[in-house]
Structures are given as C-alpha cells and as structure tokens.
Amino acid sequence: MSRVLILSKHADEYRRLVEAAGLPGLEELAAAASPAEALALGDDFDIVFGEPSLIREVLPRLRDLRWVQATWAGVEPLLDPSLRRDYLLTNARGVFGGLMSEFVFGYLLQHERRMIERYRAQQEQRWDASVTGTLRGKTFGLLGVGSIGSNLAGTARHFGMSVRGYTRASESCPDVDSYYHGSSLLDFADGLDYLVSVLPDTKETRYIVDASLLGRLPAHAVFVNVGRSSAVDESALVTALRTGKLAAAVLDVYEQEPLPPGHAFWKAPNLLMTFHTSAPSFPGDLACLFIENYRQYADGRAPLHAVDFEKGY
Predict the structure, then answer these.
(1) Residue 246 and residue 20: Cα distance in Å, rounded?
(2) What digits encode the pLDDT tens for the residues 61-107?
(3) Residue 304 lies in a domain
(4) Start-end of H helices in 41-136
(5) The predicted structure's pLDDT at residue 127
(6) From residue 54, how far is each of 46, 93, 199, 273, 275 by CA, in Å?
(7) Average of per-residue pLDDT across 131-152
(8) Coil, strand, or helix at residue 254?
(9) Number of C-alpha atoms within 13 angstroms, CB side, residue 74?
(10) Taking residues 215-244, what's their average pLDDT?
(11) pLDDT score at 155
(12) Are residue 256 and residue 133 in the same domain, yes or no?
C-alpha cells in the first residue's frame, strides 16, 4: 500500500484527476499547495508528485520516501549535491514536446513569412507584396535531442527541413539527418539557418552558446532558446545581435528571472522575448503521466523517465 503526497499549486486539481483513475494499492492521497501544508499532513509518504521547487523544502522530512514524480522536465532544485538521493526521481519527459514545437515553429514561421513586418505595413496602410521565405530546404540545428528535441526534429522534417543534432552520445531519433558530438560543435553550427537549444542545465552545457559558436553561424541565422538559460552566454548573444552577426533570436529563459529593468535584452535589436511560457504545464497532461507511472510502480516495474542525479537529466 502506498501513501501519496501531491505538492503543487494545482494540488486540488491533481488530486481530483488522480482520484478519478482509481489507482490500485493507494492507501492515502493527500494534497498540499505549499511546503507548510505538506509538513502538517505528516512525514510518512512514500510517493510525492509535484513541483521540484516545493518538494525540495520537504525532502529532508519525508522518512519513508521512495519515489518522486516531478511535474517539470527540469529538476534542478532537487539536484543539489547536499540533498538526499536515496529515492527514485522521475521527471516530466514526453509531455512538453508538442507544446515546444508549437512555440518554436510559430516563431520560425513568423520569421520566414515576415508576419511582424506585414502587420506594420497594415498599420501604416502600406501595400507590402514583397516575397517571403520558406522553411522548406532550410537547415535546422538542435542542441540536445531528448524527448523535446525529437519532437522538434519531427516537426522540422514535416516542413521539409534538413536536421542536425548535437548530443552527448545518443543517435536514436530517426528524424535527425546527421549527428555531432564532443569537439564537432563548431562543425555542427556551420551553415545552420536555425539553431534551437533544448539543453538541460549541466556542467558540460554551461555557456555552450558562446561567441565562438555564434560566430560560426551565418549572419542570416536565427537562435532560439527553450532549454535552460545556463546554456547561453548572454553578453555574447547581445553582441552578436548588435553587430549583425546574428539575424535574430527568440528567448524564453534567462539567467535572472524576472528579467530586471535595464537589462540589455530589453532593447537588443531583433530579439523577441517570452517569459518562461513556451510550454505551460497542463495538469491533465501531467496527471496522466503520473497515473501511468504509478501503475508501473505498483506492478513492480520501473517508472518511466528516471533522472540520473549525476548527469542532471
């Protein structure tokens, strides 16, 4: 029998969805919206489902903990070496790929089809019949080809793009035309029309998008970051945009969030910003993942998407 704690700002909605699934061997299902509420419920839960930033606060007190299912793809709050690691941690892989594809390709299509320029022409009552570009035939580069990257690669293939992937070692996505690893990073970047980062936050990926990498891209290239902000040297990116070495960029994540007033990004040329909103967490999607994983766990099978504490993903 299992005792499950849901710890999330959406705790009540998650509890309703999980209760409706009629999970086997569920002795207790408790819900809390804050660490204080969670601690008031007791310390004998063996399963926790929720947001890593909240779970971190109660982690030392959960004496029977065996498994944590995170509602995020990135689980950085739980990876601090000073925290306990005597439990199974699984993340929300396989949930956000479709949402990320909508976001990334929405901006790529905007760039090719010059939607912002068309709207400006409309506001100025100016007829603009100039020819637009197309994604077909362009080269799409992925920094990271995990579950989200694989989904993006499939969408790029749908639009008739050629796809390159830069990964640590894996080459499992059939929609990637060519893979690059290790010291071949600059070769990977050479000639890309679009570079998209979906990298996790690890020692190996920190500031991988630096002046050298950006300088290897053609001047017409566009950079998109929907992964972790730690992958980008922000000052190098601003310089590339200001000097015209990069045509445009789209950012959804930043080293400091919220981005402070006066930051160089606010007025950087040809930079479009969103605010950590590229792939919102919908409780229905995440509850389905937990329910599937719980059934596997209850059957004695390993839940999907286990995180390696050392690798960070």
Answers:
(1) 50
(2) 999 999 999 999 999 999 999 999 999 999 999 899 999 999 999 99
(3) no
(4) 52-58, 97-113, 115-123
(5) 98
(6) 16, 19, 23, 27, 21
(7) 97
(8) coil
(9) 17
(10) 98
(11) 98
(12) yes
Show the domain range for 285: 2-95+281-298
Q: Residue 189: inside a domain, yes or no? A: yes
Burial 238-267 (b: 16+ CB within 10 A, else e): bbbbeeebbbbbbbbbbeeeebeeeeebee
Beta strands in 71-167 (DSSP E): 88-90, 139-143, 162-166
CATH of the domain at 59: 3.40.50.720
Residue 52, CB-side half-sphere exposure with 13 Å CA sphere: 17
- In sequence order, the β-bridge partners of residue 180 are 166
Tell me: do 32 and 54 sit in the same domain: yes
pLDDT at 219: 98
Q: In the numeric block, which tokens belong to residue 303?
A: 């839940």
| Amino acid 128: pLDDT | 97
Distance between CA atoms of residues 238 and 172, nearest Å: 34
Strand partners, 195: 141, 223
Tokens of 157: 């293939």
